[in-house]
Structures are given as C-alpha cells and as structure tokens.
Amino acid sequence: MATFLYKLGRFAFRRRRLVALFWVAVLALVGVGAATASSPGPSQFSIPGVEAQKAFDLLDQRFPGSSSDGATARVVFKAPAGEKITDQENKAEVQKTVRDIDHGSRQVASVADPFATGSAVAKNGEVAYASVSYKVSSMELDDSSKDALQDAAGKAQDAGLTVEIGGDALQPEPETGATEIIGIAIAAVVLVITFGSLIAAGLPLLTAIIGVGVGVGSITALAKALSLDSTTSILAMMIGLAVGIDYALFIVSRYRAERAEGRKPEEAVGRAAGTAGSAVVFAGLTVIIALVGLAVVNIPMLTKMGVAAAGTVAVAVLVALTLIPALLGFAGNRVLGKKVRKAAKAVRSEGEDAVARAVVDAQRDPEGNHKVNMGTRWARFVLRRPVMVLVTAVVALGVVAVPVTQLELGLPDDGSQPTDTTQRRAYDLLSDGFGPGFNGPLMTVLDAKGADDPQAAAKRVVSDIKKLPDVAAVTPATFNKAGDTATITVVPQSKPSSVETEDLVHGIRDAGKDVRADTGAEVLVTGSTAMNIDVSQKLNDALVPYLILVVGLAFLLLVLVFRSVLVPLKAALGFLLSVVAALGAVVAVYQWGWLGSLFGVEQPGPIMSMMPIFMVGVVFGLAMDYEVFLVTRMREAHVHGESPKQAVETGFRHGARVVTAAAVIMMAVFAGFISSSEQMVKMIGFSLAIAVFFDAFVVRMTIVPAVLALLGRRAWWLPKWLDRIMPNVDVEGEQLQKALGEDDKPQDPDAERELTRV
To answer: Best exposed site among 43, 51, 82, 695 by fewest CB in 10 Å?
Structure first.
C-alpha cells in the first residue's frame, strides 16, 4: 500500500499540470450535468416490512387513485374573538376564499368546502379548515400557485379572520444558513494557525471544496434518476467537506514533516502520500463501510443517504491522494512556515541540498535541540497518571450519557416546526379546535377478503376500537367498490407524538388479532403516526445488527492496519463511549430543551427516528479517522524500536497538534449546519459536532494514551498464527523504507520527523 501510494504521489507531483487539469475537467463535467439535470420528483418514502407500509400498499391496490403524490394544503380559519366561523359574514368569507383558491391556479386538483359536510368545522364553531389538493408534488408546484394560495389567505385575513396554512404545499427547501460559511471561515483560521502559511492553509480548503463539488454535483445530476431528495446532498456536503479538509490536512502536514527531515520536495511528497496517504485510505474505508452499512436497516431513504455520502467520502480520498501532491508541486516552499521559508530563501542560490539543510535547522531551538510542543507535554501528563485520567474521562462521558436512557424517537410533523411558521400555527389552531389527536389520525384498514361477512367484521372492528382508551372519534367503515376492503379513521385524544397515541396503535393491532381469529378479516393500522411508530421500532431493532456488522468489519480492517488485537478493541469501545455521550447530549438539548435557545430549538420533542443510527454510522467512521491518524504514528515509532511509552509520546509529538486542528475544523463545519431549516440536518449537525469533541479530545487524546500506558507492550500483541496469515498493508511505511534503501535516508538522521510549530 505505502509503496504504491509513494509512486502515485511522486507521479502526481511530476505530472501536476495533467492531474490538476483532470480534476478541473471532472468538476466542470459534473457541474454541467448538475446544471442541466431536471429537478427530482417527489421522494417516495417507504419502509419495507412494517405493518403501516403493508396497509398503505394494500390501500393503493384496493382503492385505485386514492393515494396521490400531489401536494396538499390545509387552510385553517378562525373567527374573530366572540364570533363563530359559522356566522353568515364569516362563512361567506371562508367560501369566497375557497373559490379564490380553486380558481387561482391550474395546478389545483380540488378544494373541499368546510361547510359542505360540517365535519371540517370544530364543535365550538370557532375553527374550520379547507383541504386543498394539487395535481403536482410540492417540489413541482409553481411559485404562482403558492402565491395564489397565500394571496387568497391574505384577503381573508384582511377581512378579519385568522388564516394559517398547513400541509406541504408551502414547505420551503431546506436551508443551512450563514453559519455554514462561518464554519468554513473558522476552519480557514485554524489551518492558518496550524501551518503558519496562507498557502498551506488554503490547500485543504481548496481540495475539499473541489471534492465536495464533484460529490454533491454528481448527487444533483443523478437526483431524479435515483429519487434523491435535497437532504441527501446537504448531508453529503456536510460529511464530504469535513473529511476532505481533514484528509488533505494530514497529507500536507506529513509533507512538511518530511521536508523537516531534510528531504527534497518530490521525495517528501512521495513519502507523505505513502505514509499519511495510507492512513487516509484506511480512515476513508472505515467511513465508507459505516455509511454503506446503513443498507442493512432496509430503509431505502436511509440507504440512499448513506451511499451518496460514502461516494463523496471516496471522492475526498482520491482528491487527497492525487490533487494534494500536485498542488504541493505548484506551491513549493510556500507551504512551509514563515521562519522556514525565510531560511530556505537565504540559501536558495546554493542549491536544493542547502535548502534542505536550512529547512532542518529552522526546526530547532538556539541550543540545537528539538522543541517540546503541547502534544508532548499532554502525553507526559497522561502517562504519569493513566489510572486517574482514564477513570475521570470515563465517568465524565458516563454522566453526559445519562439522558440517553430517556430517548424517544419519532418523525417530524408540523408540530415540530418553529412557532413563527404558518404550518405550526395551523397545527396549533387545529389542535385547539378539534383536539390534539386531530393532526395525527390513524387509518385502520380492514382486509375482509377472507371474511364470511365483511360488514359484520367492520362493525366488530369499530366497536372494539371505541372501547379502547384515548379514542376521541371513530368514523364508520368505508368500503371499496369490490366490498372486500374498508377504511376506518380513528382520531386519538392525545397528540401524535405522545406515548398514549403509541399505546393506542398497539391496542388497535392487538384487538385486530382477535378479529382475525373470529372473522378471518385482517386489521392493519397506517397513517403518518403509525408509520412513525413502525419506523422507530424498525430502527431500534436494526441498531444492534448494524453495530455488529460495521464495528466487526472495521475491527478487522484496524487489525490489518495496527497488526494488533487490543488496539482495535480499545478503539471500538472508545467509540461506544463517545457515541452514547453524544446521544445523551442530543436528548438533553432537542428532547428536553436544555440550552435549546442556543441551538435554535423552539419546540423540544422526540428525536428524529433516523438520526441516531445515521449518527452512529458517521461518528464511527470519523472516530476511526482519529484513531488511525494518531495511533499509526505510535505504531510507526514502536516498529522502529521505541518503548511503548516512548511510542505514545512520539505519536502525540507528531500528531496531537494536527489531530486537534482536524477536530476543531470538523466541529466548526458540522456546527455550521445547526441553523438549517431541516430538522434532520439540524440534529445531525449538532450530534456530529459534539460527538467529534467527545471522541477526539476525551477518547482519542485522553483515554487512548492512558489505556496504552496501562497495557504497555501487550497493546501491540498479535497471535503468531494470525501474523503469518495476515497481509502486511504497511501503513507505517516500514516496507517502503526498506524498498528505498539506505541511500535514501534523510540528510540529517537526527532531525525531527514532524514539523513543529514555527
């Protein structure tokens, strides 16, 4: 591996114009594809294998045309204080608004007059609603249609009514907000401080943006063909930007370290690609495994999100291995620190050998000794007190993880929207007028094909449901033309996300078992609320198999990298600590509302069902990034003869500063998405930012050295039989060094391997 990447890095350095032109051409090609691609249609949200989906599919089959992909709107009217919506003047205004909406756009399929049946008017007479159906999806809805809907509502408001609009017709496209730019700006500042060079700081940003451009552009170009929604591209951008910066950061840092050993630019690029590049490949593989592994959950939307993000990560790895070496060739000595550049410039006329010696000398203090950086000091502190540090860190993460015991999962509805949106206000008006459960009705489907008397079976189901607790209303059964399938709408008393409503869903399903046993008819429950419950249960059931698969594959990968059993085991256990602590923080902020105002949480509620498992996958990949980058330097030092404690110290001296910078950059990038209008993106941004903090600073920088100090040489133990059969991937470059021979040793063999701060 290291030898191949060494050759690839040198090739990219020598043919830098060709490599740069290749990536520019790829970016342009993808950009054209994205710009000319047609907009994606409505995304099909399906959950194979759950009862709610089975019922939905049955309805689609037995009630042809009953389901539609068209946008919907629910226009809610409330009478002025002291008046009724049924008063003649108010009623006339509502009916006028209905006519205006119906005639306001050719995309309108139908508008239901709330007074036609009376069921759309609240019992207190103060609230009514009109249901609007469109011929096209919300993404295909013209701005003129949206304007006509809002204009009609505005006229009714001018007449004195309170009018709000729910549904997805006015659903805005997800936005990430200005803090995304702030996150990138923070990353730029961190890179400048780390490298002391604007050119060196700009390379990771430039290559990350190119990688994200290629990845997200490809997703946009294929969005319609693969039915990808906008959330997919936002999450791919988030992850691709973070790992793209970090991967480039590690290769640039290693290049500067090789230059600090006295090597010439081309040789330094080759060795950086062979060593740090190997770590990038395996770190990228762990992220890709974790993201693609989401397919085991068998939720198409989640699978697409994972595969799309994994593709963007793969592009980031390729960019780091090829474009970074090419750009380093263009940059020359300008990627070095100011003091080093000055020293190199002073002797430039004396030739490359003199420049290399000057670069080495610039890394030492006036006495000629290597500088002791903060990473070395921290490692020495942990190595002196490993038990105290380990216990403190584990207890701290355990305390933060406590809220995860109260984790509640659900999918968002208009009730989770900010209070200043018309969708949320419409939701609240309907809850006040018709009861909290009105916004989440349960659709009970009776498959009476196997029943002797379908009508009797339907009456039995209605009767049994009415006896259940928390039922506000049950409609009579409505049969299809064939008379073999009926729908029964059940309105709970409690809000859709409540425990009581979940218990009601299970109660209807339990009652349905008795109905089937007695009549032969099958009872199924669907609707958005039932779907939310089934999704949450499916994700809960899939979490353990997913963890076993992903952690197991990554464990085998890390055994190859570190040639150790205990180091990968420690890495996996450390990941579990950081991810549980991160979930605890998410529950505290988004479910309990602690510090919610700081993170834009206006309405605390259940955590989005897909967020935890998606977060687990991403965090596992990122956690292994830091493990690979930090511990491979320790492994490298150990392979070259250092004692276990010396190897830990060496690893921190070489990698702590860069890992710290990488973690801060990732946190800044992820935190930039907390302001997104999309609830899923908002939670993912927060959870990834806090998880990176816990994993990088508490687990990898604190628990890892403490555990390695306690294990000593046992940390690098590998059974002899396994050592014999396992391929040597040579991440630390040992085989590469042998292949290069003694003549390629650095000009100053006593020089520091890592470029310390200048």
So the answer is: 82
* Residue entry with tokens 């110290």: 649
Number of alpha helices (DSSP H) and beta strands (DSSP E) in the chain: 26, 11
CA distance 635 to 47: 45
Asked if 554 and 572 count as a contact pair (C-beta separation under 8 A), the reply is yes
Mean pLDDT of 705-727: 88
How does the average pLDDT of the chain come out, rounded?
Answer: 84
Give the range among 8-12, 545-549, 696-700, 735-739 with minimum mean pLDDT: 735-739
Q: Place 42 in a pLDDT band, splitting at 50, 70 and 90.
A: low
- Maximum alpha-carbon separation in the chain: 101
Is residue 691 within 8 A of residue 579, CB to CB? The reply is yes
- Tell me phi and psi for residue 491, to 5 degrees: -105, 115
Determine contact, residues 248/207, Cβ cutoff 8 Å.
yes
Average pLDDT over residues 218-232: 79
CA distance 23 to 320: 12
Tokens describing residue 570: 């420690």
Taking a C-beta distance cutoff of 8 angstroms, is the pair 625, 242 a contact? no
Binned at pLDDT 50, 70 and 90, residue 185 comes out as confident
Where does the chain hold its CATH 3.30.70.1320 domain(s)?
72-167
Query: Could you read off the pLDDT of 14-38 as tens digits, one per residue?
Result: 999 999 999 999 999 999 988 887 7
Exposed / middle / buried, residue 14 (Cβ in 10 Å: 0-12, 13-18, 19+) = middle
Query: Which residue intervals of the chain bear CATH 3.30.70.600?
Result: 435-532
The Cα 242–Cα 110 span in angstroms is: 46
Structural fold of domain 435-532: Alpha-Beta Plaits (3.30.70)
Cα(253)–Cα(262) distance, rounded to whole angstroms?
Answer: 15
pLDDT of residue 747: 39
Per-residue 3-state assignment (H helix, E strand, C coil) for 396-444: HHHHHHHHHHHCCEECCCHHHCCCCCHHHHHHHHHHHHHCHHHHCCEEE
The residues with which 360 forms a beta bridge, in sequence order, are none
pTM as predicted:
0.79
Q: What are phi and psi of 589, to 5 degrees?
A: -85, -50
**Is the CATH code 3.30.930.10 the one for domain 72-167?**
no
Alpha carbon 569 to its chain centroid, in Å, reads 25
Q: Label the pairing between strands 522-526 and 442-447.
A: antiparallel
Instruction: Give the integer Cα–Cα distance in Å for 485 and 60.
Output: 11
User: Highest mean pLDDT range out of 37-51, 99-113, 353-367, 633-647?
Assistant: 99-113
Q: Which two tokens stand for residue 135?
A: 């011929």
Alpha carbon distance 235, 610 (integer Å): 13
Q: Which residue has the tokens 């073999």?
A: 484
In single-letter form, the type of residue at position 36 comes to T
Instruction: Kindly report, residue by residue over 158-168, the tens digit of the pLDDT.
Output: 999 999 999 88
- Taking the C-alpha atoms of residue 98 and residue 614, their distance in angstroms, rounded to an integer, is 43
pLDDT in tens, 68-99: 567 889 999 999 998 999 999 999 999 999 99
488 contacts 15 by C-beta, under 8 angstroms = no
Dist. CA 569–CA 716, nearest whole Å: 12
